[in-house]
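Board work, copied verbatim: Nuclear receptor 2C2-associated protein
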Amino acid sequence: MSDISLVGESQCRVSSVLGRNTRELGKHHLFDGSAETCWNSDQGTPQWVALRWPSPVQVTAIVAQFQGGFCGAADTVLEVPQEGGGGGWQTAVPWPLEDVGTPQTLHLPHPLTLTSLRLTFPSSTDFYGRIIMYKLDVLGKKL
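↓ predict structure ↓
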């Protein structure tokens, strides 16, 4: 069975939205399939996007598309909840993003079984720390 998009059944949270303008720049634009809309974070670091599923999923890859000049930098990481609970996050896989406007794919070395994940951008290619993301997809299997 091939991998499918898992974002449809997830809940999404983001660190910030530019000017709190969620209608035009909010997180829902990451999943609307339009090349004309985007999530635009406010300035400052770190920025992040977190997804949560109602039941476990197996993740094999993540696809993201940014606006050049407003990308997460080479220190971007995929995080999973800390073992033992506590509400914290731990790095699962680094994702050294490039400052380009084309889709970038993180192929995980081993599938991750989880109910939540977070992409954290400790820095940005933008001087002010803003992130502009047009697309986010998580590929894998429902369990």
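Strands lie at 4-5, 11-14, 39-40, 47-66, 77-81, 89-94, 104-121, 132-142.
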